[in-house]
Write a structure and sequence with these properties.
Largest sheet: 6 strands, mixed
Number of strands: 14
Strand content: 25-35%
Order of helices and strands: EEEEEHEEHEHHHEEHEHEHEE
Distance between the termini: 44 Å
Helix content: 25-40%
Number of helices: 8
Length: 279
């Protein structure tokens, strides 16, 4: 159940503006007035049973997916039905609150963990108080078959046309779920790459799509946090458009996650294959 929003704050994820464009023509600069769109971002507070737990800078779209995906990837809950109710409350320029009523046992565990995370755009670790909180063991999943190169190429070809907000603003990350043929079945966008992946995870859980046969594709690099979220959600394979980090490779191997980076047209780098100890 979702409580009604108090206002309507940039639900489309972008704002139309008027701009002045300067262009060089030969030895002269020409200025013209044009219309443009810029991405929206605002503080989004995640509140559990009345206690504020995290504030993230995010694009205010697909917020129910974000609430669920964040809660799962941060291990606040383990099953979607442990969130009984989600309320989305818009406080204007101050930001948005996602108020979740969760299972009592989950709320008690959260109180014991007792951390307050304030994250700038794209930050996945800010506010974690100890090294132990950062380096929690990842779940070891049943290895999945490594996707072939052609389905990944198909997904890359379709990525641009599916990224509506990126086309409008040029500042959005995307995370999408692709079937075994590379057809994009779900896509979520956000100014923060971690947020986009959390939104996708939430959308996957809510949709009931089969995650045993397919892969996740993200428009960003493959860092530790992205691998951790993918492993926690049992996505099987994470494909990134940019490169990956050494820690991401180590953790992907331990978790049994296929990790493919630098996925570009005509080229891919396989860093780990979940069914072997080496790439």
């Amino acid at each position: 159940m979702t409580a009604p929003k108090q206002n309507n704050m940039a639900e489309n994820g972008y704002q139309p503006i008027r701009i002045r464009i300067r262009e060089r023509h030969g030895d002269h600069w020409i200025q013209r007035i044009a219309s443009d769109s810029v991405s929206e971002e605002c503080p989004v507070a995640l509140v559990y049973n009345g206690i504020s737990h995290a504030v993230m800078m995010a694009t205010p779209t697909d917020l129910e997916d974000f609430a669920l995906g964040f809660s799962l990837s941060e291990r606040i809950i383990t099953e979607p039905d442990q969130i009984f109710e989600t309320g989305i409350f818009d406080h204007g320029e101050q930001g948005i609150e996602l108020q979740m009523h969760i299972h009592g046992a989950c709320a008690n565990d959260l109180k014991m963990a007792h951390r307050n995370l304030v994250g700038p755009t794209g930050c996945g670790l800010c506010g974690k108080a100890t090294l132990e909180q950062v380096r929690q063991p990842l779940p070891v999943r049943q290895p999945r078959p490594l996707p072939g190169p052609e389905p990944i190429q198909t997904a890359l070809t379709g990525l641009d046309q599916h990224q509506r907000l990126q086309q409008l603003t040029g500042t959005m990350h995307a995370a999408c779920w692709c079937d075994s043929e590379g057809r994009i079945q779900l896509l979520r966008e956000d100014v923060g790459r971690h947020n986009a992946l959390d939104k996708l995870i939430g959308a996957l859980k809510r949709s009931g799509l089969n995650r045993c046969d397919g892969f996740a594709l993200v428009s960003s690099r493959g860092s530790y946090e992205m691998v951790a979220k993918a492993a926690e959600a049992d996505l099987g394979t994470l494909v990134t458009v940019s490169g990956v980090t050494a820690m991401a490779i180590r953790d992907a191997r331990q978790a049994g996650l296929n990790l493919i980076g630098f996925a570009r047209r005509g080229r891919q780098v396989v860093y780990t294959s979940g069914d072997s100890s080496n790439a």
